[in-house]
Design brief:
The structure is a homodimer of 348-residue chains.
Chain A (H helix, E strand, L loop, with lengths): L5 H8 L3 H9 L6 H14 L5 H8 L4 E6 L5 H4 L2 H13 L3 E6 L3 H10 L5 E4 L7 H7 L5 E4 L9 E5 L1 H14 L4 E5 L3 H5 L3 H16 L4 E4 L6 H14 L5 E5 L2 H13 L9 E6 L1 H6 L6 E3 L2 H16 L10 E4 L3 E2 L16
Parallel strand pairs in A: 1-2, 1-3, 3-4, 4-5, 5-11, 6-7, 6-8, 8-9, 9-10
Antiparallel strand pairs in A: 10-12
Helix pairs in contact in A: 1-2, 1-3, 6-15, 7-8, 9-11, 12-13
Chain B binds a DNA duplex (16 and 16 nucleotides) through helix 2 and helix 4.
DNA sequence: GTGAAAGCGCTAACAG
DNA sequence: CTGTTAGCGCTTTCAC
């Protein structure tokens, strides 16, 4: 395997180099006979086109840049399904994936575009006010955001619909006759960095609670882990008013420690209070106990982000694409919400 | 920002294009004054060299390919620290990271090398007999394995020292006076694919148990999750002989469910039996309860893999590199191993 | 339908 | 110490 070039293929097939190129790209009609000879030659030489040369001449890299957060939290936060889905999705469309860590900030973006390392970028870990968003908007290549900054600067955004998640949570608690709700807020690592989803969820949950007349308390910040969860549980137990108490845990890494803290106090979710978590279904099902959850949909979000990106790279003839694409979460009941007492059922 | 070239930089600095190139690569002595002018020009134009052109002319991409497993398990198995560490490590050495999923098999490897997408490859998810290893060995670029196949085919391997892990586990149980040990084996997803680490651990644990006269039973396969863990615990409780029982859980995703199964049966690790897990310290510490563990060291393994790879790309003057580089795990006691009764202490 | 030839933007001899 | 020049392996006008 000594690195053949398209020239070698051309010679072996008895055609010109350009014909080889056109066979590969399909940008020209090629007679069936020559196409066959060319393909046979490529096969025989196990030819692979040189990506750099291709990028240089064709100004297309067939690479998408993926900007991911790699802080200490990401492991718990379920970053992997995003990466995985984007990788598969890219491969299915003949793209490679170049990984860049978010801590590079704007410099990483500039490098990706400036060096022509990729044709487009998917960026995660978006903050409410994110300087990178404006840098991204000025790049000569398309950028898709996973998340919604305050000002998208004209960029396409894909994410879970956290507003809908908040509405679903409030509705579920109200419809099952709860008298009060607590929200386990985000850890300082999230609020300090003003990650976009935290604000989106909290604003919405306040609004819907008010609309439906549900007294609501947000505990914040609540650190992920034993201590933070213990403090939160103790606070709730000490301060809750008489009646049915609901707890919403929107940050998935906080759910497990919260469940542990409840168990340690012999408080049973679904009996002594209600619990709704926002997490993947997989995590909710796998937990001990399984809990009623509003689904994060990392795979769906990633797929749509990839779809948007492909469309941006090659806008089809059809109508456009929505600039903001929010994936609707689903509620799955797993018994950690106390059912409505027969007397207290209200309609949603 | 209209995509400047090194020619533009050269003109602006009043030098030739090659001088610009030499300023960047440092492969030639450049007078301080011209170097300054060139750097100023690059700065002024926010110049970034075209990666494709560079790869084409310089036959160096400054990219490392990373082949990762993206099966259903990988999320639980702690893949992220590997990816993260390799990404940072690569960046620190001016390399980009191209992500390829293991399910592409040999084709992915051939593509990476054939298309000159990268200068070297790090491959994870190695099976005992892995066709990809032989393909990799024949590639014109270096490949580092994270894991140890039966036949490394001359490739450099970096991984945790599972033999040492087995020894440490057996020693700890024997030294604390245990009369018997069980090993919670790997799930079918691992054994079916003959992933290399499973065999390495199991062979060693058998050997050391025999050496130290510890009766040992390996339960296998044990599926990850509630059902598998429950079955394993029930089996152990039903079949264990009188005396002190130790349990070793080498597959980290199995540990949590195992702990749950114990708790559900009111069996307390550290009191009613002993438990040693193999997992990251972080996971062991964060678990409920924290458990005595033998450390997986994904970051250290990744760092060393990267180091080996860089050395392969540019063998320094010093002596060579060991072809197999095993990271020593550490035991951290967290109270899930019953301490030795005063009368039964034996020396290690 | 197919070829010939001119670059894409960089690196690395070869010259001085 | 610096400039000139010939490619690297593709894509893509032109031309037929």
């Amino acid at each position: 395997m000594a690195a053949f070039t398209s020239k070698d293929v051309a010679r072996l097939a008895g055609v010109s180099q350009s014909t080889v190129s056109y066979v590969m790209t399909g940008k020209r009609q090629i007679s069936e006979s020559t196409r066959r000879r060319v393909l046979a030659a490529m096969e025989q030489l196990t030819y692979e086109p040189h990506a750099g040369a291709r990028a240089l001449a064709g100004r297309r890299t067939q690479v998408v840049g993926l900007v991911v957060p790699f802080d200490s939290m990401s492991e718990m936060t379920g970053l992997l399904p995003f990466i995985e889905t984007i990788a598969s999705s890219a491969r299915a469309n003949d793209y490679e994936v170049l990984l860049v860590t978010a801590d590079e900030g704007s410099a990483g973006l500039r490098r990706l575009a400036g060096r022509a390392l990729c044709d487009a970028i998917i960026m995660m870990d978006i903050r409410e006010q994110d300087e990178r968003v404006h840098v991204a908007a000025a790049l000569p290549i398309p950028v898709v955001l996973v998340g919604m900054p305050d000002d998208p600067a004209g960029l396409y955004c894909v994410d879970l619909d956290f507003d809908a998640a908040a509405r679903i949570a409030v509705d579920e608690l109200v419809d099952t006759g709860h008298d009060e709700a607590f929200v386990i807020g985000y850890p300082a690592a999230v609020t300090d960095r003003r990650l976009n989803f935290a604000g989106r969820f909290l604003r919405s949950v306040h609004r819907y609670a008010e609309v439906r007349g549900l007294p609501l308390t947000v505990l914040e910040p609540v650190e992920v882990g034993r201590a933070g969860a213990a403090a939160a549980v103790d606070h709730i137990l000490a301060h809750r008013r008489p009646g049915r108490t609901g707890v919403v845990v929107p940050y998935n890494a906080s759910i497990r420690p919260f469940l542990h803290a409840l168990r340690a106090r012999a408080v049973v979710p679904g009996r002594d209070l209600s619990l709704i978590g926002i997490s993947t279904d997989h995590q909710a099902e796998d937990s001990e106990p399984p809990y009623t959850n509003i689904s994060e949909e990392p795979r769906d979000v990633s797929r749509r982000a990839m779809k948007t990106l492909l469309w941006l790279l090659d806008p089809g003839p059809g109508v456009g694409h929505p600039p903001v694409d929010l994936v609707a979460p689903r509620l799955t009941r797993r018994g950690t919400v106390m059912p409505a007492p027969a007397s207290a059922v209200r309609s949603s």
